[in-house]
Amino acid sequence: MMDYMGSDVTVVNSARVSFGKKIPRGRIYLTEKDENLIKYLAKHKHMSPFGHCFATFHVKAPIFVARQLVKHKFLRWNEISRRYVDEEPEFYEPKTWRGRSKDKKQGSDGVVYPKAETDFIGYTSLRVYKELLEEGVAPEQARMVLPQNTMTEWYWSGSLDAFADMCNLRCASDTQYETRLVARSIGDQMKRLFPVSWPELVKVNGYQKEKLEDINKWEDANPVNQAWYDGDGGELFE
Ligand SMILES: Cc1cc2nc3c(=O)[nH]c(=O)nc-3n(C[C@H](O)[C@H](O)[C@H](O)COP(=O)(O)OP(=O)(O)OC[C@H]3O[C@@H](n4cnc5c(N)ncnc54)[C@H](O)[C@@H]3O)c2cc1C
User: Rounded CA gap, 106 and 203, in Å?
Assistant: First the structure.
């Protein structure tokens, strides 16, 4: 989390302005009536009052995760550029390989132990990448040999309702595990900032009970690379 603006009080005041009313200045807690208003707004999809609250995250994740998350058009996105940066890249390395699911939409199921030489992740391409740079090739072209598990980072900003839309899709069980981790981390922080609004907006099955640690327990052998996610979200957000 880099920055945020607004609170549940902002949501209530934005809605009450229609009647020329607002929570008295200085009161930062919500009454039951205020909470019921937020519930009503979320239930009936009156989304505009949620659009006055904002947050900014600095996310670090593999390119294949970023490639999925960038599709959320209402969240503003500024990403590191390997045209300009040619420092040694970091790579996400799964500790286990998940099997192909019979249900295509589910993506993966169970664990497999492939004989294929998975050492290719990073190391071969890293060697070629460095050689190309040493031979004078421009970073904007040399980066073509880097794989999808290369780590990238971006600033991600948007309104409370836009982040909730993203989490409703990306915390669901049909979203790829690694992508869910990012969405869930953001969700956990948004819930702390907007404790009344967030649970009303994000209604994914099991979401309120599930915690980041539970997602990690989803596989005994955790495929998350500790280099980019250390279990408490601390590595994801600077
Ligand atoms: C499990 C899963 C699998 C996916 N698979 C694929 C895939 O195979 N290929 C692929 O390309 N994408 C895929 N996607 C991405 C998906 O198609 C959406 O692009 C992505 O989820 C962003 O959703 P969104 O457009 O609702 O989000 P946002 O862009 O954040 O939009 C939020 C909401 O704003 C409104 N809105 C957005 N844009 C407009 C507009 N131009 N005009 C009017 N209203 C608008 C809509 O109500 C929208 O729901 C997948 C997503 C998920 C969750």
Answer: 19
